[in-house]
Design a protein that fits this description.
This protein has 202 residues and is mainly beta. It contains three helices and ten strands, in the order ββββββββααββα. It has a six-stranded mixed beta sheet with strand order 3-5-1-9-8-10, with no helix packed on it. The protein is elongated and about 55 Å long. It starts with 5 loop residues before the first strand and ends with a helix.
Length: 202
């Protein structure tokens, strides 16, 4: 029987983050993917524990596991991981400290992504500070879609590090070349990938 779907298995962990100005943070994650994709096993979203900086290190460590398998008929709409980091403000309210997103790596093997994080800028800074209000996206998935983001003023702050172990099944049978498997790839999330799959996935 001819193969009509392929599988993408995403294992790994949200390792931690670097937010020099903030502490006691937690991370929420979810996936954004195209219409031809569907999760078959694992969790589509989750939330980490609260992490605090140690005396020895300024990094926040979560080591929160990721384990999801997707199926699809074509690479268009290749899944992206969206992360949102939250923590207390001076009033003790949980506010967003950063949004970020990265495509799931296209090639099988071990990969590490460092995701630059950003927050929307308030229109009236003094008023928002006095009221303890911080602008947030109603749906964090908007950071992976790009539509409407060009009219939002944002400010960069912090990074989140994610380690992936990627496996695919039946992609070559369907005529898609994911390129050679590499034992370890360290890239920033804004870097590109030069594979045949990438041209389909956009």
């Amino acid at each position: 029987m001819e193969t009509t779907v392929f599988l993408l298995t995403v294992n790994g962990q949200i390792e931690g983050a670097n937010f020099p100005d903030y502490d006691n943070l937690y991370c929420k994650y979810c996936y954004v993917y195209g219409h031809d994709w569907a999760p078959t096993t694992g969790l589509e979203e989750g939330i980490t524990q609260i992490a605090s900086k140690s005396i020895q290190s300024h990094r926040l460590i979560w080591n929160f596991p990721l384990e999801t398998t997707f199926k699809s008929t074509n690479p268009s709409g290749w899944p992206q991981l969206v992360v949102s980091v939250y923590g207390p403000d001076v009033f003790g309210n949980d506010v967003v400290r950063g949004y970020g997103a990265t495509h799931i790596p296209f090639t099988p093997g071990q990969h590490t992504r460092t995701i630059p994080m950003f927050v929307p800028e308030p229109t009236w800074r003094l008023q928002s500070w006095l009221l303890g209000w911080r602008p947030e996206y109603t749906d964090p998935k908007v950071v992976a879609q790009g539509e409407g983001r060009e009219v939002t003023r944002v400010r960069s702050q912090g990074f989140v590090t994610v380690c992936f172990h990627i496996m695919t099944k039946d992609m070559k049978k369907m005529g898609y070349d994911t390129g050679p498997s590499t034992p370890s790839t360290v890239q920033s999330a804004s870097s590109g990938w030069s594979t045949e799959v990438e041209s389909y996935a956009k």
